[in-house]
Amino acid sequence: MDRYPGSVQEEMRQNGGRLTLEQILRYGADIARGVAELHAAGIVCMSIKPSNILLDANGHAVVSDYGLSAILKNLTSRKVPDDSNTSGMDATVLSPNYTAPEAWGPLKKSLNLFWDSANGISPESDAWSFGCTLVEMCTGAVPWTGLSAEDIYKSVVKEKKPPPQYSRVVGVGLPGELWKMIGDCLQFRASRRPSFQDMLKTFLRHLLEIPRSPPASPENDITNVSLPNGVEPSRTSMLDLVHDNPNALHHLVCEGNAAGVRDLLAEAASTGNSSLIRSLLEAQNTDGYTALHLACRRGSAELVEAIVAYQENVDILDKDESPPIVFALAAGSPQCVRALIRRSANVNSMLREGLGPSLAHICAHHGQPECMQELLMAGVDPNAVDGDGESILHIAVTKRYTDCAIVILENGGCSSMSIPNSQNKTPLHLCIETWNASLVKRWVEVASKEQIVEAVDVPSPVGTALCMAAALKKEHEKEGRELVRILLAVGADPTAQDDPHCRTALHTAAMINDAELVKIILDAGVDVNIRNAQNTTPLHVALNRGANSCVGLLLAAGADCNLQLCDCVKTMVPWVSLCYANFSQHMFSSLNINFRGWTLRDFLERLPREWISEELMEKLEDKGVHLSPTIYEVADWVKFRRTVTSPDFGWQGAGPKSIGFVQSIVDNDHLIVSFCSGEARVLTSEVIKVIPLNRGQHVQLKADILEPRC
């Protein structure tokens, strides 16, 4: 087996995490050529990543470990039962950071080295991995870095998103065609990804535009390596380079050759020919970019400083009417932004002749906190709003760029928390939707009392921030509780109701049976008997939902059991006895009068008698509360009361646990009941109704039954 002295990953590490444009093009061409040959042989690589791209002694990239993942999977799959409910690749088989969406699917059969028999894997899967690898080669950042395999799966498969690092690819001086090609590799639908043959052509076409140099450091000086025997270039040779190639300055910038840029511009300036240096600075390459645009896109402050020393207009536009500072923001280089601002760059400009976004909105879109700091310190309005009503805080929160959002808040952007966008949502609402408790907490710390009051109770289409926080789904209930605690502490209105359910935060907590959230709300001093638009209290909701853990909390906090009941259902019945246990004698006396509409007694009288448990009936009678006599009909199911030990007419073959149905009604006090043992005469006071068992009913074993008979 051949040995290779290095890899692309090691080369990136030695060069400070990034590669030159020439290295990206040459390595990319080598990889595309090799993978295309493997695909022609019917083999899918499955593991394209920088650590698997080796470098030979001549500096050529070589693809390694292709197909190894499939072999490992075949070996391990024999040990796993066929009914294994694995939902995706094992992390030891495929690296999640480079795995295509279709490769995350259920493994209904073992993977095969040859792609035509694989499940979900195809040559296009390698294109996705190659796109992720190119993102890392361009930015120095591992795709999806900091995320777990589960989070990557959610972003790739569920949300259909490319790696967030892809947005930073523009900062390395790549031509637009290459940037688009990488984006095509990261298409969710495999059929839309480019073939490796097409990508090879793209790499080779762009390689023809740059001079040959060894793949060493991003700081290589191409003026030295382009001349034989390391001869120092003369003043004449530099100007000759311009005459031979009008885009010579662009090439120097793309190579990161700051010394060459300074020398070329200094020599051009020394001629006293202002038109010459202007032509160098204002010339556009085939993609429509000036040298300053490319320097900013590369994120090199040294290059930008070298150019702006001779360029008066740092707001020069490219073919898309974007100034260089836009590229500096996208690259995330605060040094470049600072250099442009020192040369009087217009930080308050709106793109597209005032119809596009502001620079601050672009910066928020890319989530660059240090660049945002530079803009705000230069006088950018932290509460600026675009044509769609989106503030820069809206964008930072939506993109989950918390650090960038905090910079906005700390530099005068707290008022933006109350600004609704076109969807009638404020940044505070978006914080709730993205479970960003840390950002809300920081806002509370830096905002004034007036700013908090202005924003905290602004309604969204689904209610105020407090209502939204209380209703967060179960997997984010921890963040929801923290948000509720923060909002109540700063004075959020606890009586605010969501739309369309008309629930307060306490009603919602009781409905979802979140006892901890109920306690947080009650500890904040919220009225336990708070009513919603339907005149319902949280206790009603908890009883209606069977929220066992919340009923006790509400009762202990003083929930009034005797308030008017509206639209209650039979699920409340098991809790009526608990309510009665908390009644005072005075409250029991009120059960016999009509108090605020229906009382609990009124409610019980209107329920089918078989819904009322024997235990509840006994508690009512112990308190001196008697319901009207039970009316029996033929075919009603009955059983002996548990207090009956000796029936007036004897057991007649039946037993204490016997259940039968009414055969006939003798009079108001006597019934003929048919048990399994035969007919028996009983008193109406000796039996109670029970719910008949019909097909489809939900049942459970009795508490005293250890094992069913069958």
Automatic annotation (TrEMBL):
Cited InterPro entries: Ankyrin_rpt, Ankyrin_rpt-contain_sf, KEG, Kinase-like_dom_sf, Prot_kinase_dom
A Pfam family that the UniProt record links to this protein: Ank_2
Record-level GO BP terms: abscisic acid-activated signaling pathway; defense response; late endosome to vacuole transport; negative regulation of abscisic acid-activated signaling pathway; protein ubiquitination
GO function term, MF aspect, one: protein kinase activity
GO CC entries: early endosome; trans-Golgi network
Descriptive protein name: E3 ubiquitin-protein ligase KEG
